[in-house]
Structures are given as C-alpha cells and as structure tokens.
C-alpha cells in the first residue's frame, strides 16, 4: 500500500509517518520500481503499536524499539511503560513545585536566586544574569534563602531606595555610609559565611554584569558601583 493509504488506515498524517521514518521509530519499507514506498500490514501494525505505546507514556524512541520487537513479554513492555510514566510524573511534580514556589514568591518566570536579587523591574536583567553565572555554585541557593528572609529583604530594599536617590549632589560621606551599610548587611547573611563562599567571577563576566547594571544608572551611581565591584 502507499503511504497515504497507510496514514488513513492508522489515523495519522503522512507527515507523521515520514517523521517516524526520519527518527528511526518506523522502519522504511522497500520501494517499488516507480520509487514509491511499498507498505504492508506489518507496517500498519507497527504504526498502531507505536501510537498505543506513546499514548501509554513511552517516548517515541522507546515506543519504536518495542513496537519493532517480535519478542518480549507484555510484562516487560508494561514495566517499561511504568518506568517512563514514573519519570514523567517526577518531572511534572518538580515543575509544579517550582510553579508553587514562583507563585508564593511572586517571581514567575524567574529562578529563586534571580527573584531574591530583584527589588524592582529595573533589577531583573542583572538578577537573571547573576543567577545564571552562579548557577553551579552549591551555596547560591542558601544565599538566595538568606536574601529572602524578611529582615534582610527589608534592609536591602531600604539600601536600594537610597541608592536609587544617588545623584551628582550626593556627598561622598553619604556614599561611604551607604557602602558600609551594604557591606554590613551582606556580611551578616546566613550567619556571615554565605557571601564569602560565592567565588569572584572571571573579569570578563564581571564586566558583562557591570555593563548590564550600568545601563539605567547616572554617572554618580556608576562611579559608586565601579568602586565596589
């Protein structure tokens, strides 16, 4: 039979069958002298089994492999499906947990670390990049937890508001006081060890972060930031 007939009998599209061929899930049949593929009932059965297996939770790769096997007990197939479903359930449970955390923390679309570093919309680009650059550091999640503690967050939000008010009229003494307060708050996070455990970034990454942070700053704010990075 031709591919269009096979597709109609199986209840799928021709494009689906071609895709299954492309990824190796469905073996290609021999071709006739005119170049057309020549399908038979075995191909139809294999295609129907693939549909059943993928519908039961197997990946297309696994479904294609199992559908092509002439041996293998139904228990083995069911065990394979059960393992695949278990993996999918675990992944979905993890996604729901992340969604619940995002909803509770008001940071949908952000990692927990990025959310902890964000106090306003203008902070988001820097927070997202910082979280990405430190994603492999084992202490960064604990650092985020410390930042999200109400007392720390209130103190840092106050610092943020004062920094946003800095302009060319801000005296040096006020800036030094602001810097000292920032160091004090950060040094006390998580009992004083967390910030120190985050290693410094490579110079090119620090510059990337600094360039992003400076986009919305005035000259006085930039000067303050550069002295402390």
Automatic annotation (TrEMBL):
Keyword DNA-binding applies: yes
Source species: Leucobacter weissii
Protein name per the record: MerR family transcriptional regulator
PANTHER family, A to Z: HTH MERR-TYPE DOMAIN-CONTAINING PROTEIN (PTHR30204:SF93), REDOX-CYCLING DRUG-SENSING TRANSCRIPTIONAL ACTIVATOR SOXR (PTHR30204)
Lineage: Bacteria, Bacillati, Actinomycetota, Actinomycetes, Micrococcales
Gene Ontology molecular function, alphabetical: DNA binding; DNA-binding transcription factor activity
Entry superkingdom: Bacteria
Record-annotated HTH merR-type domain positions: 1-69
Keyword check for DNA-binding: yes
InterPro entries: DNA-bd_dom_put_sf, MerR-type_HTH_dom, MerR_fam
The entry's keywords: DNA-binding
